[in-house]
Prior knowledge:
Blueprint: E1 34-44, E2 50-60, E3 64-68, H1 75-83, E4 90-95, E5 98-99, H2 105-113, E6 115-119, H3 130-140, H4 145-158, H5 174-186, E7 192-196, H6 204-219, E8 223-227, H7 231-235, E9 241-245, E10 248-251
Helix pairs in contact: 3-4, 3-5, 5-6
Bound molecules: adenosine-5'-triphosphate.
Amino acid sequence: MTTVSDRPLTSFPSLETPVFNLGKETQPHRQSRIMVRFHNIQKTYSNGAKALINLNLQVKRGEFLFVTGPSGSGKSTLLKLLYGAEKPTDGKILVDGTDLAKLKGDRLSLLRRRIGVVFQDYKLIPRRTVYENVAFVLWAQGYTRKEIRRRLIPTLRMVGLQDKAECFPEQLSGGEQQRVSIARAIVGTPPILLADEPTGNLDYDNSQQVIKILKKLNSIGITVIITTHDEHLVRMSDNPVVQLREGRLFHML
Length: 253
Ligand SMILES: Nc1ncnc2c1ncn2[C@@H]1O[C@H](COP(=O)(O)OP(=O)(O)OP(=O)(O)O)[C@@H](O)[C@H]1O
């Protein structure tokens, strides 16, 4: 198993950009202390399933937040609302001070690019190498080959996969595949990283490595929101925790 180093992230691209920097703004961007705010959010799916009920939550810039709760309690829905895969039935979501409901076209695409997402099932492209899977995000955004290479090398090193760049996903362990998916989520240096049950398919050691990487990313200023129903993982950490139960949010002490 390849391992993740303890070295600080000195060679990783720095995180100087705010969530919204379209360049067209007339006002200079003012960073909000609150990165994410859910205000009276309701989410009812079209079949009548009430996934989230009157949910209020604030996540500070640079915070590392665990969202726990049993299966079906609304964890994935909460993240989907944030990255725009679902819309709330009622209520308001602010990301870096901007109301998501008011974003259309370019600004909505920009937001999606500024939020990295890691899934439980990795979602890698099977016939592409590790390098290509991660580079794909940057190609799609029009980066030059030189810039892609400049970003890829420190990113793969950060997740401990610099020696696996030419491997295909099927040649990797589950933990390594999850680390490719983390690399893909962060190669564009997003200020927010969402991880939906990132350790759900992993054994203890691989879960620890994934958490170590997420904490390292948090240490350079990335706001991290991670869902899990692994109580052990949460107990071992001294980060803030909220719990969902049947769509309602509870703050844990
Ligand atoms: N696309 C959908 N259409 C209808 N109902 C849905 C949809 N997605 C989720 N739900 C329902 O919303 C509720 C919350 O689901 P969600 O996937 O957010 O829970 P979860 O806590 O992430 O569960 P798990 O830990 O099993 O992934 C559940 O009752 C689920 O059945």
